[in-house]
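The protein record filed here:
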Amino acid sequence: MRSQGLPSINRQHRSVFPYLFGLFFFLAFLDGWKRAAIHPLVFFEPEGREHLWKFVRGMFPPELSMDFLSLMLRPTLETIQISAMGTVIAVTIGFPLGVLATRTFSVGGVLNEAEIKGSSSRLAIRLLIYSTARGMLSLFRSIPEFVWAFMFVRAVGLGPFPGVLAIGVAYGGMLGKVYSEIFEGVNERPLEALQSTGANKLQIFFYGWLPQVLPNVVSYTLYRWECAVRASAILGLVGAGGLGQQIEISMRMFNFHEVLTLLGILFLLVAVVDIISAKVRTIL
């Protein structure tokens, strides 16, 4: 009789949980709506409509003169260079830290059983390296690239370089975190087969680990490059060069028709990067 009653009790728990979760979500939504001070009707008030219409009307017609477009050539190239070099630095930071932050590569899994077994000091050192790598990745990605840009502008001055450093450090933490998760999901059977043939850990990584994760690693890295193009425009607002700095100047001077042109250029840059990323993914 007891065994027959357990399934009904479990079904009752399962039937109650969705309602409790729904109630909690609804209360959290109401609290978030209040704390975020969301007032959609502001757009429809007379003052809001007036300012919004003034902004939209000032954007047309866009600035398409050859003098202005030729002046924007250098900031456009700067934006591309900031995003590309920032992504390179991010990969340089994120890839090795992502490897060290992979538990199955550092402190667990079949590859480490023989080395760690019976050696508490070796296990402690590996746990320290693993924890340090994960801590650094958490630190890098917890601080927004906008704040990193502020700090680097103070350190190295205005220009594209602080934008490159900000993207490199912030995106390095993001890439490293995702890389470690991708590494964790590899099939360990090919790794065991290589280990049984006498391959060392470096050979196992390059011939067993890397071929499995390379498509996902490249795909996510290209996605982050696309995000870096947009981020480089935002970082320009704090003096990190590129199109963002020109957008900030045009906004400050109320030249909204120039802003529309700059946003169009930024859209084309993101579209081109997306096309390049799609081509590379098809090759892989």
Notes: The chain has a mean pLDDT of 82.
